[in-house]
Amino acid sequence: MLPRVDALLQRAGGAGSQAVGAEPCAHTPTPAALGCRVMSSVTAALLLAATALAARTWPAPMPGPYVGVLGVPATECITAMGRGARPADVSGESCFHYYYAAWLEAAGARVVGIPYDASPELLDDLLGPSGVGGVLFTGGSLQLGPNAPGPDGVFYRTAQDIFARVQASSQPRSRGGPAPDDRIAVHGTCQGFQVLASLLANSTSVLSLYAFDSEDLSLPLDLAPGAASSLFLSALPPADLDTLSRWNVTANLHHDGVAPSHFAPGGLLHGRATLLSTNLDRKGKAFASTLQATDPDLRVSATQWHPERPQFEWRAELNINHTAPSVRANGAIADYLVAGARDSLRGGRVMGTSNATAGLARSLATLAMDRRTAGDNDPAAAVVALFFGNPEGYAARR
Q: I need a labelling partner for 272 at 20 to 30 A (CA). Which of 49, 116, 192, 324 fits?
């Protein structure tokens, strides 16, 4: 029985013990007899309520869902460098802007960091059967490719290893894979869109560098035919999809991107990624703005735009739409990713159920990260970044 109801019953029973005990209430119209009958009715009602509550099945608390955010090299982190702050002691660390974590947490996720130089051993634990149920690839300004120099190449090779594990988690049982709900959901934002496009194409040649005039540009999505019925966009509330496709609520902050031609027959992304929307930059040049993996077993989505910004980014020069419909519609993208991570809980992917991941859930949690503010403390100007490194016992990838 619920403690609160139990306490009420005890109080009611104590007050009316003579009325509901062995001695029945007197039938004489005295104040005492009337009070006795009122207490009896109240006690009976409480007993009925307690019985109904006890018959309910209350869900057990869930330990997740967990989403891992792949950091970028701290020395390249635009969230710190953009305000002239480049701490000298961050060599070898990873970082991402705090609003990625806030955006996911607002959708009900628990967030852990994935170091940009995570070793295969660390990824085995973080993305194994008792690891995260979702992964976010954030924005950034890195040179993408496995042979990119220095930390940029390390980052990309880590992303490749993550994607390989995502593909393995998504194999259906008919092909020797895990339970249907055990797949890892993935979303990419801006640079993350470009990373996923490259990984799906198995080539960075799909990227167009410094090709688009689309910095600080908010736009409505130009949906592709059939996009509204896609796995990704059909999961959004219809009112939110309507907002995304009718109003200037998608925040574009990029100059690199992917041309729509790569999704056409003969293109490297044809049959591997489905183009859900495009947009035009200020000069009328088209770029791919939303995609999902074509393989229905892969829960992979990506936006060239930044759905985390309308709720948490307040720099006026970025021209971000902060209206209530914009905040709701952009928040629905986080809901989609977190829903995928929540689905994996039913498939048994519960982080913290092994000794290794229980420690990682603590050491890589956002609360354990080094929070640094670049710029001033004005909420409309300051940039807050989260810095973290490889957990104890795991060597960095080289």
A: 116
Distance CA 288, CA 258 (A): 6
Q: Would you call 293 helix, strand, or coil by DSSP?
A: strand
Nearest to 232 by CA among 164, 171, 294: 294
Select from 292, 339, 330 the least CA-distant residue to 311.
330
Same domain, 15 and 141: no
- pLDDT grade, residue 79 (50/70/90)? low
Q: What is the pTM of this model?
A: 0.82
Query: How far is the CA of 212 from the CAs of 204, 289, 367, in angstroms?
Result: 17, 12, 37
Among left, alpha and beta (phi > 0; psi -120 to 50; other), residue 231 is alpha
The SS3 of residue 17 is helix
Give a yes or no: residue 393 inside a domain. Answer: no
Q: Do residues 176 and 240 share a domain?
A: yes
Give helix 238-246 / helix 324-346 axis angle, nearest 10°. Answer: 130
